[in-house]
C-alpha cells in the first residue's frame, strides 16, 4: 500500500471517530460546559443556527429592501410608530421586522426609542447594485423552493426562473434573442458593476494601454469606467446584438462613442475582433462549463495584440477568509445550478485553464474585496 493511501485511511478513521463523538448528546453537553472546549462548542452552535436561520435572515433583508426601509431612515432616525406609518404597516408586525433587522445589524436602536440605520443597512444604502441583487433573489428563492427537485433534474434554460432570466445561458441561439429577453439581466449587470469595475481597474492600471476589448461587456459600464480612467484609451465591446444596442444607447448618452467600437456576436460561434492590447472577461467565465471556457480563452488569445494582457475578473471560490470564502462558493454553486450553466472556480483552476489555452505567464492580482471580485492577468 502506498504511503498516500495509508494517510488517507488514517484520516478517514480519525474523521469517523470525530463524527461519532460529536454526534453524541452527552459529548455535546460536556463540551458546552468544559472551560477549554466551551468557546469551540459555542462557535459551532452559532454556525449551525446561522445555517438553519439563514433563509429567515435573508427574508428580513428582502422585506427591508422591498419596503425601502433604509431610504426612509436616510434623513435620520424615526420612532417605530412613525416608521411603521410611512411603510403602511401595522405597528406590531412592523415592530417585529424592526427588531429582527436590528438583530442582524441592518437597523440600530437610537436614543429616545427611535430606530436608525445599522452599519449593514447604511452600507447597503450606499450600494444600489447590492440592493438590486437582493431584489433579484426572488427568482433564486423560487427555484430553491424545492431544492431536491432542482438537484435531481439539472435545469436547462427555460425550466427554472433563473434559466428563463439568464436567457443566453443554455439557449441554442443566444445571438437570436431580442431586447425583451436581454433587457432585465443587462440592466442588473449594469447596476451591479460599479464596485467591480473600480476594484478591477485599481488592480490593473491602464496607463500606456492603447485599446481594451470587453468581451461579454453588456451595456458598456466597465468600458466606460476604463475610458474615464485612461484618456488615451480606445475601447470595444463584444456581446450579443441586442445587448450591443443597449450599450450603444448608454455610451452615446455618455458621449463616448467617438472612442468606442461596438461588435455584436456570439463568442461561442463568432471570432472576437482583433487588435486590443487588453481583453477583459468581467463576470463572464463562471457562467459557462469548462469546454466553453477553454474555447473562449483560446479565442481571446487569438484576438489579443502582441504583448497584450487578458484579465479574468469575477467572484472565485477560495477567497481569503476561509469561512466567508466557503459561503461565497456555496452561494454560487446553487445559484449557477438554478441558472443552468457554470460553476464557481478556484483561482488555481482558472489559471490552469489559461495555461492550457496558451497563456504562458499567469498571475493573480491583489484584490481589495476578494469576496466581491478577484482578478487574474494572463499574457501569451
Automatic annotation (TrEMBL):
Entry keywords, A to Z: Methyltransferase, S-adenosyl-L-methionine, Transferase
Gene Ontology BP, a term: methylation
Annotated GO MF terms: O-methyltransferase activity; protein dimerization activity
CDD domains from the UniProt entry: AdoMet_MTases
Active-site residues from the entry: 286 (proton acceptor)
UniProt superkingdom: Bacteria
Listed Pfam families: Dimerisation (PF08100), Methyltransf_2 (PF00891)
Gene3D superfamilies: Vaccinia Virus protein VP39, Winged helix-like DNA-binding domain superfamily/Winged helix DNA-binding domain
Occurrences of domain O-methyltransferase dimerisation (ranges): 50-110
Chain ranges of the O-methyltransferase C-terminal domain: 164-360
Keyword field contains Methyltransferase: yes
Name recorded for this polypeptide: O-methyltransferase
Annotated organism of origin: Pararhodospirillum oryzae
